[in-house]
Specification:
With 461 residues, the protein is α/β, with parallel strands linked by helices. It has 16 helices and 24 strands. 34% of the residues lie in helices and 19% in strands. A nine-stranded mixed β-sheet has the order 7-6-5-4-3-1-2-8-9, with helices on both faces. A five-stranded parallel β-sheet has the order 10-17-18-19-20.
């Protein structure tokens, strides 16, 4: 089996989800399984040749995971399926991407789903694929948890997924990922890993009903808005996909850390801790790692601005320990997203510009206090969240954001080299927002695969 996943050319980071899935498949089935990281620049014909060489006389079984909405990979899956491969859509948003946008049969402009391109969809924990691998040549697949399949009437049927089982989440093989090279596949030398501690995001555990403004292109200066029930940030597909499934126990996290490759100095390679609110528990985790004589070199934290503010004393205590042990703590990504209060409200961040700036002041203070043990800036490898453009940009918001950026010198250390345009996945809360405005106003926005093209002028229905 092979798992194909989206990747950026020239990078050396690992991919926890696909690589853990491949590990589970190899550990619990008779299948060999590798991960193939495919960049947009990779040649399609070369990739298909590599797959043919890899499978040889065996029937191709190809999973697709973490595809980042790439239509080239969707069409590749359709080609491979037509040529006789078993193609399985898994990973984030597999269920809604397989089955299609809400009510697409009644609204032909909406995304119709990928059920024609894939043999199966699989939503939820990776171990659900194990019974499917044993039943590919039978009709006895309809009871498999998390499975999506199209019935004889062309209707997508979906089974409820399993709950997350920590017994499958402690082991990852980091050497099972490959990239395309001149002569076929070449191992990817993973230099940064990920460690799972939170499944989903605590911000997505609470349901809210925020007021979301119409897009600036539609409201034309009028105060028009809608209220929608949602969990987490309005643009976040993880919030819809997982919500918040809880925290893994320390021993499972330690098992994952043990699996990380070692750097030349004998310590584990740098890793990102997947936990949006890591600071209250970080000291205990580092103590557990140290007591087991596991050497770590760098830990990258991805968190929210409010988590940094509320956990600042915890972080100071961690940095004091890090300075003594030669450990580097990098705030690698904080989701500031915007420096305009109206845009932050529409993104349902639960934050304000004042909170974002308070977090930035704290980061700068910590750098002065802890020097070489602490990093937060773009030149140290951080890539903080900054979403621009958005659907609510106006001349006034642009001027206010630029004023804040230059007043606080954010371009010097906080802003990434390039902002991230707002992406509206069809199953995110903002997907519901677009559909509600379409209904109210008799409009229709273009769909680009799994993404709604909010940047286009909508057409009347």
């Amino acid at each position: 089996m092979a798992v194909i996943t989206s990747f950026f050319k020239g990078e050396t980071y690992g991919l926890l989800g696909p690589q853990m899935a491949a590990t589970i498949i190899e550990d619990h089935s008779a299948c060999e399984c590798i991960v193939i990281a495919v960049s947009r620049e990779d040649d399609r014909i070369a990739l298909k040749k590599v797959l043919a060489d890899y499978f040889g006389v065996h029937r191709p079984i190809i999973g697709f995971s973490a595809l980042s909405g790439r239509e080239d990979l969707f069409s590749l899956a359709a080609e491979l399926k037509a040529e006789g491969a078993v193609t399985i859509l898994a990973g984030p948003q597999a269920n809604v991407d397989f089955s299609g946008e809400r009510d697409w049969r009644d609204h032909p402009h909406r995304f119709k789903g990928l059920w024609e391109s894939f043999s199966y969809g699989l939503q939820g924990p990776a171990e659900q694929v194990l019974p499917l691998l044993n039943r590919l040549d039978t009709n006895d697949v309809l009871s498999i948890p998390g499975l999506l399949v199209v019935d004889a009437d062309g209707i997508v049927r979906q089974n409820a997924p399993k709950v997350w089982d920590p017994n499958y989440l402690g082991r990852v093989r980091w050497e099972n990922i490959y990239i395309l090279a001149k002569d076929g596949l070449a191992p990817l030398n993973v230099r940064t890993g990920q460690i799972l501690q939170h499944i989903g995001c605590p911000h997505a555990a609470r349901t809210t009903e925020p007021r979301i403004d119409y897009p600036a292109s539609v409201s034309r200066g009028q105060d028009k808005a809608t209220r929608l029930r949602m969990r987490g940030c309005s643009f976040c597909d993880v919030a819809v996909d997982k919500g918040f499934q809880g925290t893994l126990d320390t021993e499972t996290v330690i098992q994952q850390i043990r699996c990380l490759p070692e750097a030349p100095d004998g310590r584990k390679i740098p890793f990102e801790l997947i936990n949006e609110y890591p600071l209250p528990v970080l000291s205990d985790l580092l103590s557990a790692v140290h007591s087991r004589h596991i050497g770590i070199s760098q830990i990258n934290l991805t968190l929210r601005a409010d988590g940094l503010i509320s956990g600042i004393q915890h972080l100071r205590a961690v940095l004091a320990v890090a300075a003594r042990r030669g450990l580097f703590v990098l705030l690698s990504s904080i989701g500031f997203e915007s420096f305009d209060d109206r845009i932050l409200r529409n993104l349902n961040k639960g934050l304000s510009v004042a909170k974002n700036l308070q977090a930035i002041r704290l980061m700068r203070q910590l750098k002065e206090e802890f020097g070489d043990a602490f990093g937060y800036s773009s030149r140290e490898g951080a890539n903080h969240g900054f979403i621009h453009p958005t659907a609510w940009d106006t001349e006034e918001t642009a001027a206010e954001i630029q004023k804040t950026i230059y007043l606080y010198g954010l371009q010097n250390d906080v802003l990434p080299p390039h902002s991230t345009p707002l992406v509206i996945h069809h199953a995110s809360a903002l997907g519901d927002w677009i559909r509600e405005i379409e209904r109210r106003e008799g409009l229709r926005w273009q769909r680009y695969g799994t993404v709604i093209g909010w940047w286009d002028a909508p057409h009347p229905i």
